[in-house]
Amino acid sequence: MMNSQQEWVRIEREFDVPIDMVWKMWTDPELFKQWYGPNGMSVPTAQMDVTVGGTRKICMSMETPERSMSMWFTGVYKEIDAPNRLVYTESMCDEAGTIISPQSMGMPADFPDITEVIVELEEAGDKTRMVMVHVGVVEGTAGAGGWNQAFDKLAALTASISRN
Description:
The protein is α+β, with helices and mostly antiparallel strands. It has a single domain, classed as Alpha-D-Glucose-1,6-Bisphosphate, Chain A, domain 4. 23% of the residues lie in helices and 42% in strands. Strands 1-7-6-5-4-3-2 form a 7-stranded antiparallel sheet. α1 packs across α2. The radius of gyration is 16 Å and the shape is globular.
């Protein structure tokens, strides 16, 4: 099954909190904003209609002394099986949610207009094992690095919540 997907980013992580908490991190906009995105980026906007066919719209922004930069992403939820499986599409868009070509945002020529994120969660004792596959984003690229940084933030966030 995995052989056709080898080129896609696949990240496995274990979090020290129950599965329901990790599910919430992915589906509660206020929690999602606290960890999503690579280091140095914040998420000022996260709109999520977590229903099959519902849309999501996320803004990632980065403030530097020179300039502020925003990137918008939109997508549609395709599968929702709480708290075990979440599948949604992702495309670059403008602030209004209109899909724009990744190339217009400086992405490589072969970067697809629509990618798909598959999140699978399972209980591992009192921890949660997560496998995330981002179909369309190639292993070893900046996108893959961004996910790893985001999941480091997610691990720190869940750890701080579990201590409280």
